[in-house]
């Protein structure tokens, strides 16, 4: 939250990468007259807010304040009616956005309710701001000549994002400007689908200090401060200048600072910095108090432009977080950030302290502070939300149709009834449009509400054909045929399919193929019409062929989920790994079928591919591509010799490959697939050390888009890798794979197995070492300290997030992939700090997460 007493420095501009047009960016001037629009000095298009909000009144700030503000802030919309009023912003589900709201009171109502500095006057204008269903912050209204800015970063869960103003009984809510800025996925890694961040402060150190809170807009609107937003900042973030401090000395340069894509901090921001004045070696940046339960994340941005001597320092965002021995890069941006944390006793301080080896004091170019927006997980099914929004727009429904349709119950849309059908996902089960005065055809969109049970039309004025000037008397009979029947047909088809699956499964073990004479297997042969699996893309082998290709199963190379694995070579010299179903495997057939179903659905460079299979009465087998370098576990355990352990860059590349394979299973398929047995044994390596995920015998596939978990009574996974929540719930989720992958990351970092007799689990062992703040105690000693410290920290920190005890606090595999890419970039740049190419400089704008201090 930013308070601007005279609101002097707000420039509203769209966020784009400089080389890209402004297409897709949204800037809303609240209160602007309908059917009007304009462009600002940066050619940013501002549009009226009518299409994005229902209700409210248009106003202008008082005449004596109009000249003090930029054009978007001279008008506003107030909401004297209703407890909750929402703007519904168009988004793309799964994409990351920055949303910014500007509040300029400007005495628009002539009441001067915030012109006084008294607490009573301040309390007279307060209302809450919500992002979706999550409370964001409290708006305090500003003063006649000032205002507030609130920013948040979030991941969209549907095609629309509600931002709501809630009347708390302390004045009429209002808003001046609403802006939406798409972000790339790599920005702000802490932001996930279930975790949004709200800005507390963003500061540019040693910026033009003539820009003060008490200057009016007309005094400074043409100054260089505007360059610290769009177009300099590709995402149009506001970089407020930090107030001068006599304990600081200002530094600046005219040299261009190379900045990368991870945070894309503008070069103009990085060209200024502060350092301690005099002979001090400690830079006290900022302190604040917060005794609430908020969790914070701090981002510090650096770029050194004094290269003559060593600058090395420790950074403390609070007493329990520290990054040791940090050296900024010369004319190259770099950033560090904390995990979410809460300070002891609510005292927060950001401090940089030079090390004993440093010849120069610490410096800081910019910083950002965010707090976590609490998310309880309850929401309307995204496709139901998208559909009901389409219906609203199609019919022009007003009512109170704003915000989330179902939740919270006191704000549920009129005529909409919902039910919690799965986890915290609400489904729309009933729609009542009676007394809505709607005319026309019944929209096909109603058939997309697959959980809909009841529909009531608008007094018979809606039917399955266009209505003329005389409203038809056709009522619920036509409506039932037009809406309920299609839904019923879909439901019956789904039911029939599930019955077919249930009846089909018991027949599989005793299936005997019909005796068809002279059916030969050849590499060119297409689908066997008598093949019960009907796999069109893979070859069907006979058992005799497999005996031939494996030399009578001579070379045993491993053990899979349902049987032994043997080396084989086809007639065309293609090497394969043949997994035979063991008669002693208790759940072997189920695992065989699970593996077949998974491998025939997915095709990805980091997932093993199915070459063929054998389906005979007494013999079931799968043939995969052969991975010549074995599995990751054997290499970490030194199976190939003491001196044959992988170096750090190879390890990071391998786990990045594996992470991309898991990410595809979770996000790249029509319905998510849970692997169910992620471990280093199932990360296989090709001749070029490209890694692929293998062994899908325990994999499970969601059967619907609303499904949030898979319940299973069979043991899922391998001891040491199993999500502890599974033991309590019997449920598998995507986060179950994430937990297992976190254990894999710890293995890669330490070189140790998950369980060591007498030493406990790897998680406990690593936590004890991490508490020291010395990464060398965590890292595999065989690496001999030949790794980038920040790269190692990033892998360990990512692992610790993955193994969070609470599943909802774990990152997605997409986030894990981004973190590992950053770790790899750091390690690859370790021996080549003299960066010259833009591609490498982009890679170097990565984050070195804070490791914890010694306890």
TrEMBL record:
Location of this chain's protein in the cell: Cell membrane
Top-level taxon: Eukaryota
One Pfam family recorded for the sequence: Malectin_like
Regions that span the bilayer: 478-500
GO cellular component, one term: plasma membrane
Signal peptide: 1-21
Main localisation: membrane
InterPro entries documented for this protein: Kinase-like_dom_sf, LRR_dom_sf, Malectin-like_Carb-bd_dom, Prot_kinase_dom, Protein_kinase_ATP_BS, Ser-Thr/Tyr_kinase_cat_dom, Ser/Thr_kinase_AS
UniProt topology in membrane: Single-pass type I membrane protein
GO annotation, biological process: defense response to oomycetes
Gene3D superfamilies: Phosphorylase Kinase, domain 1, Ribonuclease Inhibitor, Transferase(Phosphotransferase) domain 1
Keywords: ATP-binding, Cell membrane, Glycoprotein, Kinase, Membrane, Nucleotide-binding, Receptor, Serine/threonine-protein kinase, Signal, Transferase, Transmembrane, Transmembrane helix
Family classification: In the N-terminal section; belongs to the leguminous lectin family.
The protein's name in its UniProt record: Os09g0356000 protein
Source organism per UniProt: Oryza sativa subsp. japonica
